[in-house]
Amino acid sequence: MAKYLLLKHYRGAPAAVNDVPMDRWTPAEIEAHIQYMNDFAARLEGSGEYIDSQALAPEGAWVRYDGEGKPPVTDGPFAETKDLIAGWMIIDVDSYDRAVELAGELSAAPGAGGKPIHEWLEVRPFLTAPPTVTE
Amino acid sequence: MTEAQLRDLIPGVLAALVHRGADFATAEDAVQEALLRAWETWPNQRPDDPKGWLITTAWRRFVDLTRSDAARRNRERRVSDEPPPGASASVDETLQLYFLCAHPSLSPASAVALTLRAVGGLTTRQIAQAYLVPEATMAQRISRAKRTVSDVRLDRPGDLRTVLRVLYLVFNEGYSGDVDLAEEAIRLARQLAATTDHPEVAGLLALFLLHHARRSARTRADGSLVPLADQDRSLWRRGLIAEGVAVLQAALAKDRLGEYQAQAAIAALHADAQTADETDWVQIVEWYDELVRLTDSPVVRLNRAVAVGEADGPQAGLAALAELDPTLPRYTASAAYLHERAGDIVTAARLYVEAAKQAQNVAERNHFTLRAATLRQRVSKATE
């Protein structure tokens, strides 16, 4: 088993095929989308492949160390930041192929017009602990 | 004996050990282990005196823990296997445990965790699951909290407000995992109300009961939110409402008003209305005025502005809102709602989109997004 992060972006991913912002959908389309996402997570829980999913608020801040005895510097949020993460799902699956298959299904969530969004999701494998058997 | 009934005994058991000279931190571990032992053995043979059994079992465990601790430090210490005779702990001593667990030296998260374990009798695993953190993290949080309060002497009355604040935090966390924190907060508030007749304790209990009564009407099966005005009031639990109102009335009769009684009074006025239209908004605004006076909280002023919008019309609500800081949480959502009520659908839709971006949970975000979409649909139909 291997863990993968399916990462969804507010900004920074290539444009989706059905690229209409959610607040321009009809109420029924929004409800269908939420239902699809809930069903998807429930199905992965049922198959024993679900770990976690979280949504992030769009606004955050940049923070860095500013030297001994000083409080950290904060800055931003910067409107021009190209990449903005919206949230993630973590899955634990048998193969990379399975991770891609599931990401594809997640990307098919319905959007405007009830049609799949075809949004781009990022699939990133977790680095694992070193194996016990090395030779 | 239900799990809740068993856990009701815990504060008294812990207070008995402390009363007989046990230190709080070790006694708390011992009580927790006695509780686990009770889970294992009571289904087969339940003792005649459950509390006495718990005290004896916990005391023996306390002795073991102390001896092994003493052995580690290579020091002899005489402790008897049997609890020393003496009156059992008084009600005040039980109350002291609440004060200790909510001690001001603890962070809110630590006070919540310690209260749920030491007074609530929940296991570390249950608390960890309820707050969605790893068990090891919660175990550390609890043992650090115990170290922090280990030097606090239990001979002076603590601050009841910090205890109420902790219970309020537990209640507001709601329910996730197999422990229902709202139910747990109500159970602890009931227990606390049995040990002290302070009207704010009753006010908090009433507030919990009145909000809890609406719980099943507040969300749909898919987790989406139902605003108060749209709730199916036949789903409200009348028994809880009647109890909450009775508890509140007894508290108000003492004529020592506090913020929880005022909040409960607002909840009671909502509960009293058979339909949303029958809500006595004028009286609700009066209670918000009391709350502003008691707390001077900007969040209360924001809620008051929305209530003014219902009592005196949306323009009055918007005027009240205009005096507040726009960066307040839910300011934008409140503005959206008042503009919608005022018939300015286009502005309301724009503000709901903004409110969705600022939402602090997914259910709220979905709700505001849906409101925006619904209003936009109405606009486009009107212009067709």
Task: Give descriptors for this structure.
heterodimer; A: 135 residues; alpha+beta; two-stranded antiparallel sheet; 27% strand; flat; B: 384 residues; mainly alpha; two-stranded antiparallel ribbon; 2 strands; elongated
What does this structure look like?
The complex is a heterodimer of chains A (135) and B (384). Chain A is of the alpha+beta class and 135 residues long. Chain A has a single domain, classed as Alpha-Beta Plaits (2-Layer Sandwich). Helix content of chain A is 24%, strand content 27%. In chain A, the strands form two sheets. Chain A has a four-stranded antiparallel sheet, covered by helices on one side. In chain A, strands 3-4 form a two-stranded antiparallel sheet. The longest helix of chain A is centred in the N-terminal third of the chain and has 20 residues, at 27-46. The mean pLDDT of chain A is 92. Chain B has 20 helices and two strands. In chain B, β1 and β2 (179-180) form a beta hairpin. The mean pLDDT of chain B is 90. Chain A binds chain B through residues 22-27, 29-31, 34-35, 38, 55, 57-59, and chain B through 222-224, 349, 352-353, 356-360, 362, 365-366, 369-370, 372-374, 376-377.
How are the SSEs ordered, and which strands pair?
The complex is a heterodimer of chains A (135) and B (384).
Chain A: E1 2-11, H1 27-46, E2 50-55, E3 62-64, E4 73-75, E5 84-93, H2 96-107, E6 122-125
Chain B: H1 3-8, H2 10-19, H3 24-41, H4 50-72, H5 91-101, H6 108-119, H7 124-130, H8 135-148, H9 160-173, E1 175-176, E2 179-180, H10 181-195, H11 199-212, H12 215-218, H13 238-252, H14 259-272, H15 281-295, H16 298-312, H17 314-322, H18 331-341, H19 345-358, H20 362-383
Antiparallel strand pairs in B: 1-2
